[in-house]
Amino acid sequence: MRCGVLLAAGALVLMTACGAAPTTSGAPGVAKRGDRLTIGTTADVANLNPLVGNSRTDSWVTNLMYPHLMQMDAAGRRIPYLATDWAYAKDGRSATVRLRDDLTWSDGRPVTADDVVFSVNAVRKERFGVVAGLVTALDEARALSPTSLSFTFTRPDGTFLDNVGFWLPIVPKHVFEKAPSVQRFANDAAWVSAGPYRLTRVERGQRYVMERVESFGPGRPAVKEVVFRVYPDVNTQVLALRNGEIDLIANALPPATALALKGDPEISLVEVPSLGWAHLQYNTRREPLDDVRVRRALAHAVDYPAIREIALKGLASSARSSVLTPTQPDYADPGVHEYAHDPARARELLREAGVSGLSLDLIYDHADPKIARWAPMVRDSARKAGVTITLRGLERNTYMDRTHRRDFDVYAGSWAIMDNPPANLALAFRTGGFLNYAQVSDPALDRLIDQGGRALTREQARAPIRRAARIIHEQVYDNVLYVETLTVAHSARWTGFKPMPSELLSIVNPLSLAAVKPVS
C-alpha cells in the first residue's frame, strides 16, 4: 500500500494507507549520488490541489504528480502524454481524444476518460483558475469508453484542445468528487496521484520529497528521488548549488547572476527560449490614456535597447513591440517594428492630443528583480518626453489585487507564456477577456480574435491573428518591451534535461525530470 502525509496539530505525521501506527518523519536518508536530484526553490507550495495552485513551486511539484493530456516540445507545439491522439470534427464544433491505457493512480485504480471529464467539468462548474476562461465554448464533455472521450462546443473553437490538453491537470474523480467544493479541496494529505513521482514527505519551509513511480506508464524516471528544497532567495540558492547542497535552481536566474556563473566548470547554464514577454499596459478607460495618441507618446518615450542592455544585461531580444514575438515563428509578423525611442515625437503626440503636464502612476511587483531594475528606466526616459511617472512598487498580493480590479494608470508586468496566440489574445484583449487588464474594447479586434479562435489549424489562424496583433500594436493596447533569454543553472554532474520555452516550466517539467540522469 502507498503512504501519504497528514499535517495535524502543527506536526508532520507519516500515515500508512492501511492504517498502521504513525511514525515521525525525519530528514531524507542518505542517498547514493545519482539516486537523488535536489532542486532549489524560493517558495513553499501554497496549494497541493493542482486545479487551484498557480505559483511556480505549486506547479513544479504537482506537475510531477498529476498528468496532463499533452506536453510541449522545445518549439511550443503540443505532443502526446496521457492523450495519444486527438482531432477536431470538420466543422470545429466537436473533438475527440484517445488516451493511453497504462496509467494508474497510486491507489491502483486506472486513469480513465471519466477522470478527464470530471476535471474539465469541475473547473467549468465552479469557474476558477485561468483554465475556466479557456473553456467558454465547451457544451459537453463525455466519456465514450475508458480510453476515449468527446467534447462538443457551442461554437467552433480551434483553441480548445491545445488549451485543455496542456494546461489542465487531470485529477482522480473518485477522490476529488467527495469534496463539497473541488476549488476548496485542500488535497494536503494521502495524495492519490499518477505522475512519474509521488509526494511522500512535506517539511514546510524546508523540503518536499518525491519518490519515483516504478510502474509509470510513459517510462520509469532515471532518478529515484526528487527533492525540492526551499531557500530564502536566489543568492542563497547559488551558494547551495556551488557547494553541492542542490543540483538545480528551478527559477530562471537574474541576468547579472547568470553572467556571474558563466565559466564555472562545476555549473552548466541552459538558455531557454521564452514564449513570454515583459510589457507595459495602459488603462484605456482612464483619461487621457483612452486617446491612442497619448499611448503612442508613451510608447515612444521608452528606451527599449537600454532596458535590454542595462537591466537585462543583454540577455533579451526585441519583441518588435508586438504580442507575436519572433519566438513564435508560426505567427510572428516580420512587417511589425519596434517603436522608436523618440522623446521629441512623444512630446509632439502629446501636443496633438492637447495634453500637457501628464502625470501617471506605474504599479509593479516590487519583489520582481527584473521589473524593479527597468521600472526606474521607464520613469526616467518618460521624463525626457515631459511625462511624470510615479513608481508604485507593491507587495505581490496587493499588486495582483489592483491589477484584477483594473486600478492603475500604467501596469508593468510579464506574460509568462504566449503558447497559443488565438486563445491568449482572447484572454488578454477581447472585450470582457479574463485577463484584459487594459480594458480594451474594440469590435474590429474582437472579430479577428474570434476568427482566429475558430480556425482549426495554425495555418488557418495565422492571417487573422496577425491582423489582430497589428491592431494591438498600432493602438498600443499593449507595449511589449522585450523577450528575455531565460537562463537556468544546474550542476555539471547531471545531463539529459529537456527544456520547455517557458520560465514556469524551463527544465523543471515532467519530461525533463523523468529523463535527467547523472553524467556517467
TrEMBL record:
Domain Solute-binding protein family, chain residue ranges per copy: 79-431
Keyword set includes Protein biosynthesis: no
Residues annotated as signal peptide: 1-20
SUPFAM superfamilies attached to this UniProt entry: Periplasmic binding protein-like II
CDD domains, alphabetized: PBP2_NikA_DppA_OppA_like
Record Pfam families: SBP_bac_5
Source domain of life: Bacteria
Entry keyword Transport: yes
Coiled coil: none
Keywords, sorted A to Z: Signal, Transport
Family statement: Belongs to the bacterial solute-binding protein 5 family.
Name the record gives this protein: ABC transporter substrate-binding protein
Source organism of the structure: Nonomuraea longicatena
